[in-house]
Amino acid sequence: MLKTSAKEVAELPDLKAVPSNYYVDNHHNYSLPAAIIDTNYDDDSLIPIIDFSLLSSEDPHQHSKAIQDLGRACQHWGFFMLVNHGIEESLMEELIGVTNEFFLMPEEDKWKYKGENVFDPIKYGTSFNYTSNETNFYWRDFLKLTLHPQFHSPDQPNNFREVLRDYCDKSRKVARMLLSGISESLGLEKELMEKSLDLDSGFELLVANYYPACPQPELVLGLPPHSDFGLLTLLIQNDVGGLQIQHNGKWININPITNSILVNTGDHLEIFTNGKYKSVLHRAIVNKEARISIGIANCPAMNAIVSPADSPLIQNERLPPLYVPKEYSEYVEMQQTKPLDGKSCLDQIKINSPPLK
Ligand SMILES: O=C(O)CCC(=O)C(=O)O
Ligand SMILES: [Fe+2]
Q: Which residues belong to any copy of the Fe2OG dioxygenase domain (predicted)?
C-alpha cells in the first residue's frame, strides 16, 4: 500500500520535476486526452445559479419558478452553484481551515487514520483508490469520513470534530431540501425520494481533497474524469480553482465563488430518475498553489435497493427501466475499489450493457 503522500513528494527538497509515476499519460485507464492538450474549454459564466432561499418561498409563483430552475439545472447541467443557502461563510471558512490543518499534520499522525477497507469510517490516503494496486498516482491526498448514519471524525486537529459536526448538520438540511425540491421538479410527491431511499438513515461521506502545489501542473491530474456515486454532492473549496466539469462535450473551469456551494448530481439520482437527471463527469486539475476541496456525498441508505422501477416516473409513463436494481452498498464498493474511469460503474448496471466482470 502506498504510504507516501502527494504532499510529501511535493515537499521533497529541490523538487523541480514531477516524478514520472504521477504523469497522467501513464494511467492505463485514462481514456481522454491529457489535460495539457485538452484545450477545448468553455466559459463558466453559463453555469446555473440556484437561490436556495427561493425554494422555500411562500410566494407560490416564486417557489414554482425556483423548482423549475432546479429541475432544469439538474437535467441540462448536473451542476449548479447554490447561493443564499444559509450556512455561515465563517463556518465554511473554519472547516476549510481545520481541514488544511489536518493535512499539515506530520505524516505519521495522518497515517494513523489510513483504514484498511472500503467501509472504514475514517480513511486518510493518497491518489484515488485505497485498495487498488496502482503504480501510477494522482496528485492528491484525501481524508474520507462517514458522517451519517454515524458521525465519525479524527480527534486531531483539536476543533476539527466540533466544526465538522456543525457544518455537516447544516449541509444535511440543505441537501434534504434540495432533494425534496428535485422530487417536486419531477412532478413527484416531495417526500418520495426520502421515503423510498430511506434518507433518514442515508449514507453520507465527506471527502476532503488536498492537492499539493505542483511544479508541473500540466503533467498530472488531481482526480481523473469521474461521476460521484451518491444522489447529490455539495462541495466547498479554498480560493484556488481546479475543478472542471464536462458540459456538451467541453470542459468548463469552475472558478470558486465565495460563499457559494457547488452541487452536482450523482449516479444514484441518474438511476432513480431512470436517466432523466444524469450524473455529470468532472475532474480536478492542479496548480502551482495547494488547493483544498471538501465534498459531502448525500446518498441512499446502505441497504436501500435503488431501482428506477420503484419510481412513478417510469410507472406512469410506462417506460422500461434502464438500470439494474442494486443494493446501494454494493455499488459503493464497486466504485471505490476499481480504477476511476469516467462513468464505467454506472455503465456496468445499465440494461443492455455488457455483463458485470
Ligand atoms: O476537487 C474537486 O473540486 C472535486 C473533487 C471530487 O470530484 C470528488 O472528491 O469526488
Ligand atoms: Fe467527484
A: 202-300
> Does the Cβ of 228 fall within 6 Å of ligand 1?
yes
Residue 208 in contact with ligand 1 by CB distance below 6 A: no
Using CA atoms, how far residue 98 sits from 45, 102, 155, 159, 257, in Å, is 30, 6, 12, 7, 20
259-293 tens-digit pLDDT: 999 999 999 999 999 999 999 999 999 999 999 99
Does the complex come out with an ipTM higher than 0.95?
yes
Q: pTM for this structure?
A: 0.92
Is residue 115 within a helix (H) or strand (E), and if so which, with residue range?
none
Task: Give yes or no for residue 295 CB within 6 A of ligand 1.
Answer: yes
Q: What residue's CA is closest to ligand 1, atom 3?
A: 243
pLDDT tens, residue by residue, 134-143: 678 999 999 9
58-78 burial code (b ≥16 CB/10 A, e <16): eeeeebeebbebbbebbeebb
C-alpha cell at 356: 458485470
